[in-house]
Amino acid sequence: MSNSIKLAILGLGTVGTGVINLINDNLNELKRRSGRDIIITEVGTRRQRDDIDADIMQNSDLMAIAASDNVDIVIEVIGGTTLAKDVIMQAIKNGKHVVTANKALLAEHGNEIFAFAEENNVHVAYEAAVAGGIPIIKVMREALAANKIDWLAGIINGTGNFIMTEMRDKGRPFADVLSEAQELGYAEADPTFDVEGIDAAHKLALLASIAFGIPLQFDKVYCEGITGITLQDVNYAEELGYRIKHLGFAVRRDSENNGDAGVELRVHPTLIPQDALLANVNGVKNAVLVNSHPLGQTLYCGDGAGAGATASAVMADVMDLVRVLGSKDRDDQSNTGHHVPHLAFIPEQLSDTPILRADQMVTGYYLRVHAYDSPGVLADITRILSDAGINIDAILQKPAHKVGQVPVIILTLPVIESQMNLAIEKIEKLETITDKVVRIRLDELA
Questions:
Q1: What is the per-residue pLDDT across 400-433, written as a single tens digit (0 to 9) for each?
Q2: If 0-12 CB within 10 Å is exposed, 13-18 middle and 19+ buried, where does residue 158 land?
Q3: Which of 11, 18, 178, 318 satisfies CB 3.0 to 4.6 Å to 77 for a cystine?
Q4: What average pLDDT does the segment 354-372 reach?
Q5: How far is CA 106 from CA 74, 84, 113, 271, in A?
Q6: Where are the domains of the chain?
Q7: DSSP 367-385
Q8: Does 4-135+307-349 carry CATH code 3.40.50.2300?
Q9: pLDDT in tens, 147-203
Q10: Which one of 3.40.50.300, 3.30.70.260, 3.40.50.920, 3.40.50.1370 gives the CATH number of domain 361-442?
């Protein structure tokens, strides 16, 4: 068998350059672990780079690289969902294994890409697409293969976690912290994907498919950002023993639970207990909490972005594929013969379990209601909630912010969202209510 594995890296931004540096720094270690020389033969870049080894071919024609006979594995780190898709499909067509960090592409087109890879006996590896250097994909596909995953909850966007941490720890308003996040490079000039939860929703779609053996369905993920979170709510949550985190949830619900059977896919701000593991993951760190049977709860935490963390995940996938190529050389089995299926379950066994609509979701709630300070207001609010079948867990009435007006904070036990929608609509129609009801979901993570 050939003793070398030839890599092409498409894109020489932060991650692509990080991969080159990692290979150069750990070359001997990689060979000791794989038994192969791992070499970079080609890189895809728009402009010639003086800092790239002269033996590596630099080419702006990414499609040509994807078809090159001088490449065994294509690493795609250019991003986007158009050119990246075309290049990956070209690589697959030409029998190349692919490693990608492109969560948006896989969340939106992964079903098609994975099916094409199966047809062509190659594999698309994507550890770096979710939570950076945390090996959550490998854990869920392999280490938890004998477990039934009931739910997972994750801090899967570092920008959002940085913002919520700074608001809580330093009492800074959202806009101020966002501006600093952009200056530090944690957030893009257009931060929409981060602060509105779209980035987290891409990652959640991938995690949910692996957890439950369902096709990728990004378009069915409920997505709510953190732009409406105020210091007022952060402080009230703390006073009640909770912290607000921007979380992604994938929850399996059966007919025995409250509500309809199916899978909840949701990204939104969430109150969680202050002593919960996820509540104490701060700054730009990512973390995923998985609840499975029989193992129970396990937490996976670390750097979710950056050159080193993402390059580590990319090269972990490369090492897996090197072993696959080695097994093919030894026994002439197909390229995928020694590899876990893309979504952990064999394609024929993927389930058509329905994804629940937003109004079918079941969570607890934090409600902030502003009302005139007059007799009977609290009784009216609690009566409406009771009539809707909503159980109250705690009530906190705060001093007036405006003359004659008081904020009332209510925590509820889990309830179907449609019931809460009707109750809030009725509360807002009361003559004593002065503003829209603020609601934030609540989860005990139990």
A1: 666 778 999 999 999 999 999 999 999 999 999 9
A2: buried
A3: 11
A4: 96
A5: 16, 10, 8, 30
A6: 4-135+307-349, 136-303, 361-442
A7: EEEEEES-TTHHHHHHHHH
A8: no
A9: 999 999 999 999 999 999 999 999 999 999 999 999 988 888 999 999 999 999 999
A10: 3.30.70.260
pTM: predicted TM-score of the whole model, two decimal places: 0.94
Q: How far apart are CA 117 and CA 109, in angstroms?
A: 12
Cα end-to-end distance, the chain, whole Å: 51
Residue with tokens 């439950």: 212
What does the pLDDT read at residue 257?
53
C-alpha 19: how far from chain center: 22
Task: Look at residues 309, 301, 215 and name the one whose alpha carbon lies nearest to residue 15.
Answer: 309
Helices (H) and strands (E) in the chain, counts: 14, 16
| pLDDT tens, residue by residue, 291-321 | 999 999 999 999 988 889 999 999 999 999 9
Non-local (6+) Cβ contacts of 166 within 8 A are: 172, 177, 180
Element (H, E) at 125: strand 124-125
* Residues identified as active-site: 203
* Identity of residue 98: V
Alpha-carbon distance of 21 to 23, in angstroms, equals 5
Beta bridge partners of 40: 7
The pLDDT of residue 399? 76
Phi, psi for residue 326 in degrees, rounded to 5: -65, -40
136 token code pair: 């959550």
Identity (one letter) of the amino acid at 406? Answer: V
Q: Which two tokens stand for residue 405?
A: 């007006």
Torsion 90-96-97-98 (CA) sign: negative
The pair phi, psi for residue 383, each rounded to 5°, is -65, -45
Other Cβ atoms less than 10 A from the Cβ of 366: the count is: 24
Structure-token pair, residue 217: 């369905």
